[in-house]
Design a protein that fits this description.
Length: 90
């Protein structure tokens, strides 16, 4: 199974907002709690970050497929989590 990869920068306010959305969604729905998310701080993991095709953070990939890039809403973060769950069933 491909993993969910979350690229962020700690100082990014939009990343901190996405972090809050992730936390809220995991509290609201227990099925999200078991999703393994590899969190990549692009400031300290530049080689890995540069190996993916994106420009803005927060960005979510499922394996090599980009699911979201840029400012995220709670609904968009939910979409990312749901896409992982759908892919996990295949």
């Amino acid at each position: 199974m491909n993993k969910l990869i979350y690229f962020k920068i700690p100082s990014c306010p939009f990343c901190r907002q996405a972090d809050r959305f992730l936390e809220e969604l995991m509290q609201e729905n227990e099925k999200y709690r078991d999703i393994p998310i590899q969190i990549v701080d692009e400031t300290s993991e530049r080689v890995l970050a540069n190996s993916y095709n994106y420009y803005y953070v927060p960005t979510f990939f499922l394996g090599s497929k980009k699911l979201h890039e840029g400012v995220a809403t709670k609904d968009r973060v939910r979409f990312v989590l749901e896409e992982y769950l759908k892919a996990d069933k295949v």
